Amino acid sequence: MTRDLRPLFDPRSVAIVGASATPGKWGYWLAQGALQAEERRAVFLVNRNGGEILGRTAYRSLAELPESPELVVITVPADGFEEAVDGALDAGAKALVVISAGLGEGGPEGRERERVAVERIRDAGALLVGPNCLGLFDAETNLHLSSNSVPSGPIGLISQSGNLALEVGMLAGDAGLGFSRFVSLGNQADLEAVELIHDFREHEPTRVIAVYCEDFRDGRAFARAAQQAVEAGKPVLLIAGGGTPGSARAARSHTGALVSDLVAVEAACAAAGIERVATPKELVDVAVARLGAPPARGRRVGIAADGGGSTVIAADLAAAHGLELPPVSRKTSSGLQAILPPTAATENPVDLAGGGEYDVFNFARVVELLLRSDDLDSVFLTGYFGGYSTYSEEHAAREVEAAVAMAKYAADAGKPFVVQTMYWRSAAAEALRDGGMPVYRDLEGALHALSALVRAGVAQPHGVPDVPPPAQPVEAAGYWAARALLEEAGVLFPEARRAQDSEAALAAANEIGYPVVLKALGDVHKSDAGGVAVGLADATALERQLSEMATLEASEYSVERTAPVEEGIELIVGSRRDPRFGPVTLVGMGGLYTEVLGDVAVALAPIGEDEAERLICSLRGAPLLLGARGRPALDVPAAARATAAFSRAAGEHPEIDELEINPLLVLPEGALGLDARIVLGGVDRDAA
Amino acid sequence: MTRDLRPLFDPRSVAIVGASATPGKWGYWLAQGALQAEERRAVFLVNRNGGEILGRTAYRSLAELPESPELVVITVPADGFEEAVDGALDAGAKALVVISAGLGEGGPEGRERERVAVERIRDAGALLVGPNCLGLFDAETNLHLSSNSVPSGPIGLISQSGNLALEVGMLAGDAGLGFSRFVSLGNQADLEAVELIHDFREHEPTRVIAVYCEDFRDGRAFARAAQQAVEAGKPVLLIAGGGTPGSARAARSHTGALVSDLVAVEAACAAAGIERVATPKELVDVAVARLGAPPARGRRVGIAADGGGSTVIAADLAAAHGLELPPVSRKTSSGLQAILPPTAATENPVDLAGGGEYDVFNFARVVELLLRSDDLDSVFLTGYFGGYSTYSEEHAAREVEAAVAMAKYAADAGKPFVVQTMYWRSAAAEALRDGGMPVYRDLEGALHALSALVRAGVAQPHGVPDVPPPAQPVEAAGYWAARALLEEAGVLFPEARRAQDSEAALAAANEIGYPVVLKALGDVHKSDAGGVAVGLADATALERQLSEMATLEASEYSVERTAPVEEGIELIVGSRRDPRFGPVTLVGMGGLYTEVLGDVAVALAPIGEDEAERLICSLRGAPLLLGARGRPALDVPAAARATAAFSRAAGEHPEIDELEINPLLVLPEGALGLDARIVLGGVDRDAA
Prior knowledge:
Oligomer: homodimer
Largest sheet of chain A: 7 strands, mixed
Strand content of chain A: 15-25%
């Protein structure tokens, strides 16, 4: 769906239905905002009582307008929703913005009213923003249709929260930024975030796309739109609301959102290259960095300050953000020593030790050396710089000179140069900003933003996969069905035989060869009730186990070849379906303890073998697979092949809610599924 | 050591040695600062060239002064350090503040010069701050002896960084706070942080003690001083610098600091009830909260905002901070429904859904209900509140009225009430501040501070233990020595026999009873080289194992009774000595995987059984010990007894650098050490 959104962002005429002469009312703010661009477009104020509003005569209805209003903003009570929509369409509107609340967010009845209205709107070749939204803004076309004024700048904001937009606007304004466009999504009855992301990608004044979303609708389409924007060079920053129990309660009540698991959102962000942020401040902090610095090619940062404490605190916080502070080469260190006093620290972090106070231009010399060092991917200046302007006018001038030089060196080096200064409003700080550099007041904002530049530079988003076309549906759940599905997909399992009773089990064991594994199948809870026995060395042991399992009332048994568990490490591979993002594959370190710790990594299914390997290697416990502590390296590529095959099978079966291999035993050569499970259509039918 | 610091903070007279008439020089700033209190105390400016400085005639030396200067500030080059100290003492000074750098931080020679000078200073009954410091400040006595001016307020700051003090001062000023006192520690040649903490505890205008430290000197004394301050009702907030490789490099070069492991600092903070913060902003954010709200009695927070997005984002961030958002009781929810529009969310978080816009006093009604709810330990208001003042003067007045009411309700309830508002400078925000409430601009600061209030309320600092008097030193390292030491302390191990050869091993096994465990001792690396064999079922198996181990060239063997490993969970218990904080005990979940993940908890040794149990239960993997996933609960008290006994043994043996039980097997009844290790005096003498 690629519709022309010009009637929304640059309408030839605007009508405000529900315009009001009373300050503090929505109909007043909207009228006031619309009138700011009266020279650019006709503005019609509509109020059923007529009268005068902000010096203009109000029309009593849309039918009275002298010309067709291209955009109609509706701010009447929900009761009048249908009438207002009909009136707008009859008047020839091509875009409707509905502020009115009390529709789809309230429940099914409201959603049905929205659906019917949207059908009429689309039939008329028009589009709808809202309902339950807070309007929109376009800086270039001077379109102000929201309650509060917002600053102009390079950020395109798509938001399911109006307050968030205001807060982001204030913080952005403080940082010298603002909005190119802002759209309040509301209930997304017609226009959804995905269509706006596509539109913002093509919108020249928009250089960063920021999204606050509670309901992702078609999550894959959303992620794909974001991926295309990222590929087109426009970073996408996302606040995803509703991932914890409390916020999910709030989101459902706020926009009737069908909330997604945080795990699915994380998988979508990784696939698309979306940078997830948690708060308005983080959003603006990261936007400042992405607008002012290139992505970093690696994690190695050089830190400089005139003052040991500043370097110490910054170094600790940088490490907490996963950045690396390698000592610089002897060459760079010698260069620094040649500039700085003998007490200076010249390895990294660099403490100018008064060298900046002695000559403030030494900051520029130090930063230049660090930017030129092959040992560093980015440079961070922190602390007092900017404060020398309080000494004298000469100091101030020299400090600005240093700032201008540093901005130039950074641009030449093509590396991120990020600055935190307690004198963030000084002339030197402004000179850095004018030179395009990201400048921060607080350390946490600066280092969070620098770590985002690193993520942008080193992450390898694998792209949003299509959900494969459905295969022949699986009809039964249970162990054998799961094994059959996964074996066909290419996952290896130990040899196994079905046995209905003890006699058959003993015969099966003879064919397979001792020691064997015995599993009781059916409605049994395996780990709790002892439904799995391993290492049964001979027929006596097997018989004893069979009689012990008799109490489980198993419907049948599986007798299996013993796998060399002690030679390998166990993974868990699972998949579940998110209501918005579809099948999500999860890989984790196996075992009881690790289930408790939740060492898992996730991806939108299906994934290829390379991506599966990256996923496995991203686990905190991955060093054990790769040969930590004197252990042999295991066959991670085989585990990745199994995981990729698993994820494809999960993707091809929409009738499966959950699919799991637990454990997947990774061996020095190969990988073996030791157990498998299917949950069909929301019910766990574990019976074979 | 409890010295009278009055000559430092409230001297009857001050002399500035190195005073200068040149703006931008230290000698100028110090003179300018000192002269601010000329009515309170005599100020003498000393410059070897004499002349006029800031309108006063400078003395050529301290010997020329008309009276004895009680406090002398020295800002001459390091070369003149001894001469200036002698001059000050000869003139009768009781306190010296030495700004001069280039002494102890540069290496042993400088430290020796400091030592000699301090000896003379102490002999004269005087004291020294610095060298390499940035001066000091006392608001009450109007003592300004630093480069920049700082705001006055309730925070007492002790800092090894001058820039940090400036930055904290600026941020505190924005929050309406400032310093009661500030002391720049420098190299701590004489006066150390610990003495200042004791002094600040008694200093009435100081209500929060903030410390930035790179070198803790006597770490136990430091922690004990902090503990006493906390017990006296003065929160201690600490930025500890130097815990990561990069920052340790910087700290060593900055003040010649002997840096402590982060683990030791963490243990000290837990013992003393110190709140650790990472940055100046965190420090001020937490100070605002501790000054404006009582500690929270639990983790349950109620969140309110007029706007769904605000509640959603805050709820997610609160969860990330470990706070809980329980749905409120039906009674509270009904109360909220009675106030708010039908679309409001009234469970928790509470979205006023326009109810605040309709009547801004509804914020106060909502907050009152939440503060009164027994389901909540604290209340957090976030988002737009404060912005209604932009509507009209009536709105503004009503909003302030609501703010005043909320502050009163919070004071009555005795619960934390924390506010974040994008209109943080509004009249309503100021009214909240005037009412003593913590108000923040950014969500992260507000929720970090709220989580600090929770820590202050729920943490149970166990107190800083004394290192016990040394016991008879252990002379040998190795397995048997470790076992003997720990068994004597009360740790249980499986029965074991020493065996010099195969014959002795077989005999030992017969006495113990099969299956046995065989360990090869001596210079062997056990896990890598197969020096431990378990489950040896009979003499044949033992003989085979002995011949396999022959290649290890073990000096002897241990033959041991088999422990029921499959019935328990393994812990690691270890101890190491920090150069500043002494012996630190560490408990972690055992096993290869968990060593990789580092699931550990630490405490200053020795610890009692209660503390050991809390420590074990704080592990992320603790649910497994307590009976997660259908497993039986294990004997955690027995594990705690073993850990407490271990920590006492570690504490009593300063000659031991490292002591370890790995693993400690926690069983349904009891806990058994399965292996033990001693490292003496820095060398691993694992040979038996």
